[in-house]
Amino acid sequence: MSTSLTAYYGRMKHGLGTINPEEAVQLGEEWMIAAATGAGLGLMSAALGGLDKKVFGVNLPVDGLVSVGLGLVGLQVGGESGQLLKIASIAAGGSAAVRTFETFFKSGLKVKGDFEDLGGSSSMGFGGHQMGYGGVPLVGPGVGFGAAAQDQLVEASKYL
Q1: Quick check: 64 and 100 in contact, CB under 8 A?
Q2: Residues 147 and 154: beta-carbon distance below 8 Å
Q3: CA atoms of 20 and 25, how far apart (whole Å)
Q4: Cα(148)–Cα(137) distance, rounded to whole angstroms?
Q5: Helix (H/G/I), strand (E/B), else coil: 131
């Protein structure tokens, strides 16, 4: 038995109706604090030429340091102002975490070695195509479009 669109609309309307307006306003204010923190970090990044700086040979995320500073000041100040600073601290920490983990994952997921020797009359059946991770051919722009790209993807899937 299928549910009608009216039933889905009713569920959605009921769900939206249970939202506390005061909490929604609070969330909006916190989003604005996060956006203002992001704008401030963007200004700092533009002025400093990036948010990662080497200090004594160690890469330090400037926004991570800003996050710790805002959090500590927020804890010391207390009250409504302290809460605002703690929210800004979380936003700055999120920025630092995204960049730090992006760098970590990019370096950890790189394929080491050359696959050029797999070209030509390769035993994998891709003759002359540049090979990527695990012997899968690297298809240029338009990946997945056209018969040739589709054939390459089908051939690559046979060897997974």
Answers
A1: yes
A2: no
A3: 9
A4: 12
A5: strand
DSSP class per residue in 21-72: HHHHHHHHHHHHHHHHHHHHHHHHHHHHTSSEEEETTEEEEHHHHHHHHHHH
| Cα 40 to Cα 152: distance, rounded to the nearest angstrom | 47
Phi and psi (nearest 5°) for 140?
-75, -155
CA distance 80 to 74: 9
Cα 93 to Cα 110: distance, rounded to the nearest angstrom: 26
pLDDT of residue 2: 59
C-alpha dihedral (93, 45, 81, 29), degrees to nearest 10? -80
Report the C-alpha dihedral over residues 81, 82, 88, 90, rounded to 10 degrees.
Answer: -160
- Global pTM reads 0.55
Of 41, 46, 76, the closest CA to residue 61 belongs to 41
Q: Walk along the chain (160 residues) in steps of 10 and give the mean pLDDT of each run.
A: 74 81 90 92 89 84 91 92 93 90 77 48 46 50 51 67
**What is the domain partition of the chain in residue ranges?**
5-108, 116-158
Write out the two tokens for 157: 């899937």
Q: Show the tokens assigned to 124.
A: 């994998």
Q: How many alpha carbons lie under 13 Å from residue 119 in its C-beta half-sphere?
A: 10
